[in-house]
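Hey, weird one. I pasted the Glutamate decarboxylase sequence into the form twice and got a warning about non-standard characters only the second time. First submission, copied straight from the form history:
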Amino acid sequence: MKAKAETLQDARGTAGHDTRTDEGCPLHWFDTDRGAFEDLERRIAEHPAGFFASADFEPAGACATREAQFASVDLPEHPTAPQVHADHLLHDVFRHVMPVASPTFIGHMTSSLPSFMPALAKIVAALNQNVVKLETSGALTGLERQVVGMLHRLVYGCGDAFYAQWLHDPEHSLGAFCAGGTTANLAALWASRNNLLRARDGFAGLHSAGLVAALRHYGYDGLAIVVSERGHYSLRKAADVLGIGRDNLVPVGVDADGRMRVDLLRGTLHDLQQRNIRPLAIVGIAGSTETGAVDPLDAIADVAEAFDCHFHVDAAWGGATLLSARERGRFAGIERADSVVIDAHKQFYVPMGAGMVLFRDPAWTQDIIQHANYIVRKGSVDLGRHTLEGSRGAAAVMLYANLHLLGRRGLATLIETGIDNARYFAGLIEQQPDFELDSRPQLCILTYRYVPEAARAALASPATPPERREQLQQALDALTIDIQEMQREAGRSFVSRTQLTSSQWAGRAIAVFRVVLANPDTTHEILQAVLAEQRELAGKSGKLAAVMRHSSK
Ligand SMILES: Cc1ncc(COP(=O)(O)O)c(C=O)c1O
């Protein structure tokens, strides 16, 4: 193999081709030549927020898709020198990603991580364990079961004897790690569907005979999943994949705080009963994606019990709030759920790719359990017997590390800081004459919009006719979208946006800014600056004129 210096020189001289010959095993070509990537690692992984704030990073236009740059579909024939590829990655890719670890990036659920995480992730990648089976994961199988058990106890609070009996029982499972909330919701509803239409009276069970035979045997005209209108779109995918049909994901209306209305839920269930549609699950949301609203879980649990229905809680975002003694009361009733989804890659501050489903009853996976002769054999403790996914990485190690290094207290501090920041920001918005708070934060998410004073006055005035009111709302929607896009392009800070039915405006769907305050480094000064920037951008927006026109008499 050639010396590193010679390789790089060759590489430059041949337009990026590494002229090393095909000597030796390709996997070992870089055994002595990793310098370029180690340098990148130092510049990025050791302090991502610093990288995002550095001259190496180019925030403006970061949302552009850069399709022209990624247009070629020709597979590289020749090896590229590591330095050339590292330079390419830095200049053409990494410097144009989104600065999610930046404290001014407050628009999405993806935030910064504890500083030890990149090093740990590197170890996990290097070990390359596959937790689908014991033979490729060793101690990690037990570790993952333990972590699932810790989260199970956080939700359900069962006693020591329960965990002594079930935690490592190969035929049972307290839950499973998944790629994220989407697969976790699907896994929960998969288990629920198979349990509902299980084998009995000579019928082999839905898992073997399929949905059509199962409906015929049980005498139902269809299945439904019931969730508030604020349910995450992953539930729509689950309804589709499970053969239930997207139209049978039945939405229930929400109250002024975005929480499921239990009176409407009862009505929905009666209606389904009359149509002979069996609700496969009622889903309560513990931290809705758009506003962080927490459904009245205890009351929903009562209804689920009355209708003998599976109660699933989507706590993908909010679940970590259970760590906070101060805040967990909002989730009263979650312990009555048959299944719960919590994402580790959200408020447990673990890198992307880690969600979890938890089952109250350890026997709940009996109707999804799988076997194969070369792997996940009968009687084995292989995790893959109880999971939707096959090969999986050891994401549990990262949650295990956060649980130990930050502890419940440290994680609760992060949760409480986010909620405190959201309350502060809501108060700040309410003090402004030209901003309107749309959703009061229950967790660390809130929505609001910019409404110039003249527009606020026009909307508040009973003398404003309905047509002008609607024209003004449309102009405000356009202004909100424009400000959000201008702010994103400017690259100093980032908020997201959504369209939500607003109880303030008689159920009209309005465009709003959406803020997720999960980064503890987001200061009050940053939040003040975000409003100042939005006000300034509004002044420059071409959409402001229409707002002002419809605001004046
Ligand atoms: C409430 C809720 N459920 C499910 C999901 C899906 O999670 P993921 O994107 O990890 O698949 C999300 C994601 O934002 C969510 O907010």
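That's the output from the first submission. The warning seems to come from a hidden character in my clipboard, not from the data itself. The chain has a mean pLDDT of 91.
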